[in-house]
């Protein structure tokens, strides 16, 4: 028995965990939801979500960049009420935040994408549905009231026919914008996943059986539902025992991809195309020249190229390069309302969050995602009030101060 398995047995003697509703209500912030998530999901799932590539330098850098931000308030502005509503690519949103595409999330909670879609719709927030989802794009579209805006995320797979099919399916299902991920010519090396032998669906090993005692809720839901797979492409997923689903998916990424390949999407799609994974001015211009009307400054949450820059650090140069040719959003490391305020003050239209809603999902399913959005929106409203503005649109770079060199 190794140390991790021993820890699993010892945990049997631990006092019962609080009920989900109390845990969610007691969460003061995203980090509290993260702690609850870590207690409730198996270690391999926690690492799959929380981990980054290689030494996780970029993963840490994203938070460090936000920690350096200085917000300078204006006092006595008479902000009796705030209004966080905005529009993102023509879609109404109750706050300048959308949910980033995260694949295979029925490993986090059996209700996976459906729980996320419902919570987002109820909160008036846009959900970006992943092409590598563990629920089909059609089921997710049907899970929300008619007219609810949702976006679809696309990988330009090696198999261009499959890629084009997904675009057509997304169009027919009523998705409002196409988010094309640029930063995945190959998968980043998530070394935690390699150490854990992470696969989709997870393998039932001896360690997994021991883990069931520690996370009974997760395992109970897991055995009662169909094992998570990449639902949009199941008919193409090999059944051969020697190829894991993760390997199969990794093989679909195409390192030979170029900007010309964006035409695969543009030919079959009339709505906004948003390029996700831009990290420098030159690529922002290239994406707009290739037909994108939106940019997401993203390093994939530190999961792809380790040592890539923090997104907040490159936001200003991207904004300057595209001017008013494209709407710019940012993700990677956004955890607080103050992070959103900082990005918007610099000129971003809004932010996306990935892990924060997965923490909520793992901690409490749909109610956990709803709680995350409530916390983030409450923080943003309080931050705006403290800064002396009633709406995100009133923020500009004059609210951002500089940190003295000796303090860094
Ligand atoms: C578990 C997980 C799965 C992800 N899957 C995808 C994906 O399928 N497609 C994609 O473009 N980005 C994917 N991402 C990246 C997110 O869209 C987003 O860029 C990132 O999570 C933002 O950083 P944050 O988690 O710090 O908020 C994934 C992220 C996580 C944590
Ligand atoms: C479905 C997963 C392999 C996606 C993922 O982990 C990612 O894109 O970061």
From TrEMBL:
Entry annotation: catalytic residues: 300
Keyword Magnesium (UniProt): no
Residue ranges of every copy of the FMN hydroxy acid dehydrogenase domain listed in the record: 22-405
Coiled-coil residue windows: none
Protein's UniProt keywords contain Metal-binding: no
Keywords of the record: Flavoprotein, FMN, Oxidoreductase
Named cofactor requirement(s): FMN
Binding sites annotated in the UniProt record for glyoxylate: 155, 190, 300, 303
Binding site for FMN: 101-103, 153, 181, 276, 298, 331-335, 354-355
Pfam families: FMN_dh (PF01070)
InterPro entries listed in its UniProt record: Aldolase_TIM, Alpha-hydoxy_acid_DH_FMN, FMN-dep_DH, FMN_HAD, FMN_hydac_DH_AS
Protein origin, superkingdom: Bacteria
Gene Ontology molecular function: any one: oxidoreductase activity, acting on CH-OH group of donors
Family: Belongs to the FMN-dependent alpha-hydroxy acid dehydrogenase family.
Protein name: Alpha-hydroxy-acid oxidizing protein
UniProt source species: Baekduia soli
């Amino acid at each position: 028995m190794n140390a991790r398995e021993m820890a699993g047995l010892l945990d049997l003697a631990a006092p019962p965990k609080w009920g989900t509703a109390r845990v969610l209500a007691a969460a003061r912030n995203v980090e509290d939801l993260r702690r609850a998530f870590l207690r409730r999901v198996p270690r391999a799932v926690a690492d799959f979500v929380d981990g980054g590539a290689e030494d996780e330098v970029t993963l840490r850098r994203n938070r460090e960049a936000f920690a350096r931000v200085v917000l300078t308030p204006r006092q006595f502005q008479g902000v009796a009420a705030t209004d966080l509503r905005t529009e993102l690519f023509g879609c109404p949103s109750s706050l300048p935040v959308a949910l980033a595409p995260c694949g295979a999330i029925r490993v986090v909670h059996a209700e996976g994408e459906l729980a996320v879609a419902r919570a987002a719709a109820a909160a008036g927030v846009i959900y970006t549905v992943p092409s590598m989802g563990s629920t089909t794009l059609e089921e997710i579209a049907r899970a929300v009231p008619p007219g609810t805006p949702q976006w679809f995320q696309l990988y330009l797979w090696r198999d261009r026919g499959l890629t084009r099919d997904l675009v057509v399916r997304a169009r027919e299902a009523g998705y409002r914008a196409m988010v094309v991920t640029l930063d995945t010519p190959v998968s980043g090396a998530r070394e935690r996943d390699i150490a854990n032998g992470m696969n989709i669906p997870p393998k039932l090993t001896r360690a997994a059986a021991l883990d069931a005692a520690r996370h009974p809720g997760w395992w109970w839901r897991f055995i009662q539902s169909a094992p998570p797979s990449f639902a949009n492409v199941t008919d193409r997923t090999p059944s051969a025992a020697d190829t894991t689903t993760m390997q199969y998916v990794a093989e679909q990424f195409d390192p030979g991809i170029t900007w010309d390949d964006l035409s695969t999407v543009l030919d079959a799609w009339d709505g906004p195309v948003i390029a996700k994974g831009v990290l420098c001015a030159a690529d922002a211009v290239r994406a707009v020249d290739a037909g994108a009307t939106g940019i997401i400054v993203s390093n994939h949450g530190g999961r792809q190229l380790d040592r890539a820059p923090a997104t907040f650090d490159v936001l200003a140069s991207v904004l300057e390069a595209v001017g008013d040719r494209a709407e710019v959003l940012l993700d990677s490391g956004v955890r607080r309302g103050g992070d959103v305020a900082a990005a918007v003050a610099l000129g971003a239209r809004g932010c996306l969050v990935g892990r924060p809603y997965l923490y909520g999902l793992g901690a409490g399913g749909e109610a956990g995602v709803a709680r995350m959005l409530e916390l983030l929106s409450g923080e943003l409203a309080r931050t705006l009030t403290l800064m002396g503005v009633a709406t995100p649109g009133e923020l500009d770079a004059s609210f951002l101060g500089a940190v003295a060199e000796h303090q860094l």
